[in-house]
Amino acid sequence: MTTPERPHLIVIYTDDLGYGDVGFLGPSDIATPHLDALAAGGATMRRWYSNSPVCSPSRAALLTGCHPSRAGVDHILGAPRGRDGLPPQPTLASRLADAGYATSMVGKWHLGTSESSSPRALGFGSFFGFLAGCVDYYSHIMYWGDHHPIHDLWTGTQETWRNGEYLTTMITDAAVQVIDEVADDPMFLFVSYNAPHYPLHAPQEYVDRNAHLPEDRRMIAAMMSAVDDGVGEIVAALERQGIRDNTIILFSSDNGPSAEERNWLNGEEIAFAGGSAGGLRGHKGSLYEGGIRMPTLWSWPARITPGTQITTCCQMSDVLPTVLDAAGIPPADQHVVDGSSVLDLLTGTKSEPEDRLLYWEYDGQTAVSDGTWKLVRNVRERLGAPTVEKIGLYHLAVDEAETSNLYAADHSEAVRLGAALDDFETRLTGWQQQISQQGQELSPIPTAAP
């Protein structure tokens, strides 16, 4: 088989995985040897951020290159069939498909359950997985919320029944099948694991592998052991096909670890502490670092130097422009994105980061950071929790754990970042008003640090 000039791309996404739940970012009680090997052979991203602290908006930003509100998904989408989600627009999948890539997705979608918001409608040539936010790992049924159970497993548009099979293993097997069938065309494969999102299910072999850990931590570790084994199988499949060197692999998570009570399987009704944010403050649903800083690596043996460590602040919306840059695909005139290509950082052709502002919004919380300083408004510790700070200023350069709110010290940084956040909040209002107006072009977020 002839390796195409354009690289293959595999995005491996996990669900509710914390910054401290992998080995490649530092000491961890969860063993992830395959991920650690990928990181050692590629680039570890020390400050890679999700665009949102929850599932659906994060995925929207990944696939569109836009802030979630601009993309049209700023909240967690529901599970009932026929619900619209991500509006029709260019995506990473559609841009790559237009350039001749074979595009496939396996696993969790969570960007709408209607036909117009389906993976196929938004650029994927094939799909195996589930459309909503979470399912039982063995029955593939959604049981939660104020609705009746919903079976949610599909091959394309065909409902698929495979009761009793562990979903993480099924996702891995489907991904390996796509790789084994790769033709001469370049491939984009989105492998979207739902682990370690609740319900905390894992086969006995993985529970036994982590029997030394406390109950809550043990189940997160067991689920991640299954994912890590899957990553090993995916890499092995690439090697069998002789395409490993020219394959870009991105591994990350949609948001930080969940502290929701429903993670427990023993009836506990207290906050769950099984996931780890690696010493960072906050969990899923929070704009503190623990809710939005993601365990992330890039691997591309042909271009990325092994052992690369990158501390520049980057965001999930950077994926689309980075991948298009790597594939030599020019930006589309009518497709405005908020992300920036970080290809030069990954390949070492640019070492000095540019001044840049990153912005977040979720459920009344907003934040802005230039990497050194961060301003937050109406922030919470976790999903569903009350507001704990109306406004906070943190010096991330010396306080990554966000323990000291310096806003009252009247720093000039509070004024500078406050003005930028005011502007962002104004733009948010405009996006929310305009998003329903099909075809209207929205102006990009200003990212140059003032």
From TrEMBL:
Gene3D superfamilies: 3.30.1120.10, Alkaline Phosphatase, subunit A. GO terms for molecular function: arylsulfatase activity; metal ion binding. Residues 7-329 form the Sulfatase N-terminal domain. InterPro entries: Alkaline_phosphatase_core_sf (IPR017850), Sulfatase (IPR050738), Sulfatase_CS (IPR024607), Sulfatase_N (IPR000917). Transmembrane segments: none annotated. Keywords: Calcium, Hydrolase, Metal-binding. The keyword Hydrolase applies. Signal peptide: none annotated. It comes from the Bacteria. The keyword Lipid metabolism does not apply. Belongs to the sulfatase family. This is Arylsulfatase A. It comes from Microlunatus soli. The lineage of its organism: Bacteria, Bacillati, Actinomycetota, Actinomycetes, Propionibacteriales.
